[in-house]
Each structure stands twice: as C-alpha cells, then as structure tokens.
Amino acid sequence: MSLWEIAIPVIWACGLLGAGFMISLRFEGKYFPEYFFPLAGILGLIVFALGLSGALYKSIFIVITVILAAFFIWMILNTYQELIRYVKTKPFYLLIAIIPLLWYILAALSYPVSNDALYFHLGLPKIYAAAGKVFYIPANLFSASPRTSEMITTAFYALGLERGAQVFIVLVAAILVFSVWKRARELGGSGTIAILILFTIPILMGQVTGSKNDYLLWGLSFFACLKLLQYDQEQKYRYLFLAGIGAGMAAGTKAIGLALFGPLALLILYNVALGKYRLSRFFYFTLLFLLFASPWYIYSWIVTGNPVYPFYDNFFHSPYSSSLFNSFNKELAIKTIDHNLINLLISPLRLIFDPKVFDGRLGYGIILFPALLIFIKRVPQIIKIALGLSVIFYLIWFFGFPFARFILPVAPLLAIAGSYFISSAMMKGKLLKYTAIVSLGISVILPLPSVIRDTLPRVASVVKVTPKYEFLESYKTLDPYQTQSGKTIEGLSYIKCWEYINNHTPSDSRIGILASFWTRSDGYYLDREFLYLNPSEQNLYDFTAVQYSDDVRTALTKLGISYVVLDSVVLEQFSDKSPWANIYGFWQFASGVNALRQSCERLSELVYSDNRYRVYRID
Fold first, then answer.
1. Mind listing the pLDDT tens digit for each residue in 60-114?
2. In Å, what is the CA distance from 68 to each residue of 15, 164, 535?
3. Chain centre distance of CA 81
4. Residue 311 burial (10 A CB sphere; 0-12, 13-18, 19+)
5. Residue ranges of the domains in the chain?
6. SS3 532
7. Residues with Cβ < 8 Å from 38, sequence gap 6 or more?
8. Closest of 245, 237, 200 to residue 221, by C-alpha
9. What is the DSSP letter of 404?
10. Which of 86, 112, 230, 403 is the most buried (most CB within 10 A)?
11. Which residues pair with 615 in a beta bridge?
C-alpha cells in the first residue's frame, strides 16, 4: 500500500475545504466548512464533463491535485493558530474526534468489500477510469443515475488509488460532522450534542467505509437548507442562489435529492404568500436548482430514454427495460409500508422499533429528541423553520420512498433541533439533566457493537498487512436476508472463481455472469471485461427470446462473451422449485435460464467448478 492512498485524498478533501474557507471568509467573514460540499459537487461535474469527452487522463488529475494542494496550504497558513488554540483548550474533544476518524480511515485502507460499492459506488469508477471515459452500461442499472460522488472517486481510480477513493469518502463524512458541529450553536443548538445525535444513527455510522454517495448528498442537503435559513434571516440574494445550487447538486448526487426541492420550494412560496418574499425569489431558486440538477437527468434521458432510469419506467418506457421487467422486479423488491394516515402517524415509532418495515434502523435519538421540542415553550424561530423543513421532507419521504436511509438528508437539521431540546432540558434541573445525558449516552453506545463488528476485520487486515486474496477469501458478512440473526456468510463467495478466471483466461476475454434481482456476484475483482446476465434487468441477452439451447451460442457470440459463469444459487432461483414461480413472467425467464444452462453443459467446455460456481468456455 502506497502512502499516496492517504496523502492524495487528504489533499483533495482539505484542498476543497480550504477553498470553501476562502469563499466563506469572503461571503460571511468567518470560516465555515459547509462550502466544501458545493465545491465537491462542482468538481464532480467537471470530472463528468471530462468523462463524456473521453479525457479522464491521469495528468489532468495530477494538475487538479496540485491546485487543491495550494488551497490546502492556504488553509493551514490561515487557520493553524486557531487549531493550536483549540488543541490547548479542548484536547479531550479533539482526541474523541480523532480516534473514530483514524479507525474509519484504517478500515477504508482495506480492499473494498461492500456489495453496493463493488457494483456501483466503486465498480463504475473503476470501469470508467480503465476506459478513460464515461459511458452507459446497459447491464448496470445505475450507470445512468446521478453520480456526482462517483465521478470524484473515478479521479482516484484514474490516479491508481483504489483505496484512496474509500479514504476520501470517510473524509467527506468527517467534514459533514464538522459542518454540523460548527453551525449548530449559531442555529440555537449545541455542536457537541448535535454530532452525538448523528452518531446514534446506525445507518450513518455503519456505511462510512462503504464508499456511499450518501455523505455528499447529506452535506449538500444541509448546505442548501442552511443557506435558505440564512436567506430567511438576512434577505441576501447570494444565500438564495446558494440554496438553489446546493439543492440542485444534491439531486445530482442521488435521485432522492430531488425530494429536497419540495420543502425548500414550499418554504419560499409560504413566505411569498405572507408577502415577505417576492415571487421572483421562487423562480430564481427553481432556475438554479434545475441548472445544477439537470445535467445528470438529461444524460439519462439521452442514453436510456428515461430521465430517472431505472425508476418510473412504466411511464417513460426505456428501450433497455420492459413492463415485464418492472412487474417482475416489483414483486421481488422490498415491500414498502402502506401509505395511509394511521401508518404515517405511527411511522416514527416503527422507524425506531420495527426496522424491517423501512429496511433500516435509525435509532431513537434522531427521532425522539426533536419530537420532544413540543414540551419546550420558547423555541427559536430558526429551529422552528428547520423542523418545518424536516416535517415536509418527511411527508414527501413517507409517500414517495419510505426507506430509512432516504430520510437522512434532513438528519443534520433534526440533530441540531434535538440538541436544542437536550441543552434546554439540561438547564431545567438535575433530574432532567442526568436523564438527558443517560438517554443520549445509551443511544450513542447502541450502534457501536455493529460498527466494530463490521470494521474490525478490515482494520485488522490493514494492520497485519494481510495479502489481498487471503483477506477477500476470509471476509465474512451478515446474511442480508437474516441480518437480525447475526448469522455470517462468505462476503465474496465468488473470489476463488474470479482468481481462476484472472489467471487462466486470455486478457481480452469477456465474461458473462449469471445474476438475478436478489443475487449478484460482483465483477469488481475480475481483471476482465464482464457483463451481468440478469434476466429481469437487461435485454442485451434477452432471456425471454433465447429459449432454446441451440440459440444461446449465437446470442453469446453476438455479445462477444467467451466465458459464462453459472451461479448455482441463481439457477435454483429460476428452477421448478423456486419460491418465485407464481410471479407473472417467471416461466419466461426460467426457460431462458434453463436454455443457457443446457447449452453450456452440452456445447461448452467446463473449465472451473466449485461448490457454487461453474465456468464454461464458449468455443
């Protein structure tokens, strides 16, 4: 492992932070870290433009590194005295901040193992960097989706820094926490308590080393909300413009970011109705939102025929999908809660106590403490507005995409509001003070065992300098279908198969990997070009049309596939005994899967086999 895996992401993160400090000093006369996020968004758009033009050159990213290093140096020269003062006055707080950061960085320096990262968050950047350009991959559902964060990590792959990409995401998460801490006091809360409330969220704490794009999304969402709150207080146009830019970039990072437009726009229209704002303010905000969000959706519309692909395809009808795909996958997808008034009213409790309903656990801190503000008589106006934005977003979330992780764009606002309640409660008497401290402490401790369980093997592999394949073969993860049981399974069951393919096939081979909606053997560690053969997610190889084994060879040859990997788990999912057998369209897909299996067994050479995978050479 090279030291550059740490140095370059630190230079990029601190360089963007320094540039943000320079801008905030110009706009607000102080150093505020939240400006990091729109600058990161702009950098992602720059890399996207370079990728579309086929110019993902290492030399360009070296130049960007030098520029960011200059901003980093400027930040050090202008803030070191403040940092030294903080170290002297509050060394304990600094130590508490550094320990988890170093732990997460160590975990990030291990080889990537998260399924979502291998498929999308790091998988796509690796492919783009190798090709030197950005392009649509029909067999990867999200290769046309908004991906500002993935564009930045593409730059690290172009620089040859696989693990550096993971370290950068850890630093993005750290800057998000720093931003909440810095701003909480100005909004009427407590910085320390606000970040402790954030630490109570298992999803937020558990995904730091998963290279998720969520941290940039949450940072941009916080930036947009913060600037609109500042505009409401100071009536300065620049804050309104920055709010529109931040909201647009949030939508360009992940599709759920589109939902942020709702509460922000409604707040503006509410003030227009009161006569506080002119209607033109709404149009300015909307124009900037569309300007910075639209590049990703226009691109998706051009390459897939659907601006929000793969969502809402029953309306847009992309040629890469079909009504059969949509109906079949809908039956297999995690079922969302019924959208009715009773479920809406009890949903906060179910978020805490019934995580299966929302596919994730938020913990009680982020829900309970803001809700208890109803018992506080005098709540600052800015906290009320922050809560109002959160409530409107919550309604959009519940009736649109009620999965736990999608509520987190407003988590910083809720954390700050909750910190105001705890601060107020602690001043009401010893009983309330100690009750608040104990309650917060318990909620912080609860996620720690799972965080340690998931990151310890990765940290250990870095400290012990465990060889790549030894670590990947031994890595265990929770069974995704029995997470509450604590049962672990092989995290990368396919790694020995991939190692064989890398060592025993021609370098120009193209590998077809049989996959399904529930089961995918990620091709990240294949040193060969690959294509996911998923019956209900791609039609390059049309399982509903290729129903006879004699036609399979022609279809595979047309796609340039020279080896096929058959996963016995997927074969079982499309067998006569499958639990999916009653789903409409199943037998069309199953016939195609059976034809592929028979063709491989009859007409192709078996070159590798283990207890799960078989690899066939297509002659």
1. 999 999 999 999 999 999 998 888 888 788 788 788 889 999 999 999 999 999 9
2. 4, 16, 45
3. 35
4. middle
5. 213-308, 495-617
6. strand
7. 220, 223, 242, 245, 246, 249
8. 245
9. G
10. 112
11. 565, 608
